[in-house]
Amino acid sequence: MTTMNTTGHHTITDGSFGSLPTKLLQHASGAQAEIAVRGATVLSWTAPWRDGWAGYIDGYRDEADLLAQHGGRSAILFPFANRLKDDRYTFDGTTHEVGLQFPVDKEVIHGHARGHDWTVVAQDTDPASGAVSITFGFEVRPGDVDGYPFALDATVRFDLTETSLDLTLTYRNVGETDAPVAAGWHPYFTLPGHDTIDTLGLRVPARAQVVNDAGLIPLPGDAAYAPLDADLVHETLEGVQYDHAWDRLVPDADGVVRTLLTDPATGDGVAVWQKTGTLLVFTSDALDRKRESVAIESLETTTDAFNRPDRADDVRVAVGQEKTFAIGAHVVRGDRA
After folding, report:
1. 3-state secondary structure of 63
2. For residues 21-49, average pLDDT
3. What is the pLDDT of residue 180?
4. For residue 122, what are the contacts with CB-CB under 8 A and spacing of at least 6?
5. Predicted TM-score (pTM) of this structure
6. Residue 46 DSSP symbol
7. Alpha-carbon distance 191 to 6, whole Å?
8. What number of other Cβ atoms are within 10 A of residue 292's Cβ?
9. Residues 6+ apart with CB under 8 A from 336
10. What does the alpha-carbon distance between residue 266 and residue 67 come to, in Å, rounded to a whole number?
11. Cα(185)–Cα(204) distance, rounded to whole angstroms?
12. What is the pLDDT of residues 55-106, one digit of tens each?
């Protein structure tokens, strides 16, 4: 647990992560988030925990870790999320082959925006605001990455409140042809006092689990969606291994879908929220930092959506069209002693 003094006002200051520049957001309450310019990557998020403060994001350990993109921690997934079958896709009759972007990757995964510097385009520290905010911008142009000959302008706005860290990812097609896009966010979460996710509970409000082949590519057509009668619930994650997604998400009464990671003894924890899309859970069993944290990924659509006829409308962005995907996380207090 981290003990913090409140500042009484919102601030945004410059920092560093090794040689990489960062922005440190501090809310008037004392909540904090540090975001690297490289990839607009959240390195840490500190928010209330019971009678003190604690970190909820399991970020990169050092600069080398971030540059190698080990685990894609807190990556902004853009212009596509997760895998492409056989590292290629077909869009409007043309097949594109996408090359590996990072040495650690064994296949094309998560787009390329996570490995490049974003530009700070706006900051808001107005004391009258309920949030301290920063917006980063990024451009994709033909020739920037093999196999993606499209032009997009993107921004991601981070809003930090006392109890939440929210993201608004907005992108516009500024090219001369329609473009495929499937975005998302790839944070790893942990809770104070838990050295392993084995002692944490998980609830995913969904009515279908996405069924994958051995390469983690969803099966064709309707076979990709296994119906669920109720929410997926694990009292603890002990013995549970996931690199799986869920679809047909069920919102609360306010229209927001909340996936819960909690301390089973109290119900305290974090809610990862989105209003639309797909939710993926990765229990990090394949990583060196095995089961220290769990990736709860809010995604616009399913893995390999560029190649799926049932997701064609999800991924198509017409010339001049703008889309927004709002996501984030907030602290929850349980009702158990």
Report:
1. helix
2. 98
3. 98
4. 133, 134, 135, 157
5. 0.95
6. E
7. 22
8. 15
9. 265, 266, 267
10. 37
11. 17
12. 999 999 999 999 999 999 999 999 999 999 999 999 999 999 998 888 778 8
